[in-house]
Design brief:
single chain; globular
């Protein structure tokens, strides 16, 4: 229980609690409030990771709730933004498909008595970029409402959608050989390294 009630875990829980407030304020047209709440969510996401590493407060519960907060925040906010920006349905579809496959993979690993690996480069990049594009779209909504001009044309949003989907696909492709390695016993989730496979070793 001691490892559950840590500052990073409380920050992750706080991010989960922010989700309904972000989506509700946005759908009600309070774009500025929704954007500020998203910024707070993003900052706490960075902060909990920094605190966990700096003060050794990394826990198994934290490894579960931190990515859960990320995924639910992303999916919920993208769904809310669909009301004004239909192209985002593609991002939502890819995101949901990726996370469902990841969830199935995690279930398989837990049934085998092990766990998924930690977040990798493309996973972190896709999450960060998705935060950024959601923030930019919401800021554009604020400016469009106040200036009565169109700042984000559909082709711009389609470009953002394409990049976000590419990063999510690359993230999935990066996890796939690791998942296979865990199943085959050639990837150690404790050291986060491949073992007995010269293709993946640096030496």
């Amino acid at each position: 229980m001691k490892n559950i009630f840590t500052i990073p875990n409380m920050l992750s829980t706080f991010r989960l609690c922010l989700i309904p407030f972000i989506t509700t304020t946005y759908t009600q047209g309070a774009f500025t409030v929704a954007t500020l709440l998203l910024v707070v969510s993003g900052l706490t996401d960075m902060l909990d990771g920094m605190i966990a590493r700096r003060f050794g407060q990394i826990s198994e519960f934290g490894k579960f709730i931190d990515p859960l907060a990320d995924k639910l925040t992303m999916a919920s906010v993208v769904f809310a933004l669909l009301l004004h920006h239909p192209p985002l349905w593609v991002t939502l579809s890819v995101l949901v498909a990726k996370e469902l496959l990841t969830l199935v993979g995690a279930y398989v690993l837990y049934k085998k008595g092990t766990r998924p690996s930690e977040s990798k480069l493309f996973g972190k990049l896709s999450t960060f970029f998705l935060y950024v594009i959601l923030f930019l779209i919401m800021v554009a909504d604020i400016l469009e409402e106040r200036l009565d001009v169109i700042l984000l044309y559909d082709w711009v949003i389609w470009g953002m959608v394409a990049i976000s989907c590419l990063l999510m696909i690359l993230a999935f492709c990066q996890y796939l050989p690791i998942f296979i390695g865990i199943i085959k016993g050639t990837y150690n989730v404790e050291t986060e390294q491949f073992e007995g496979d010269s293709k993946h070793n640096d030496t």
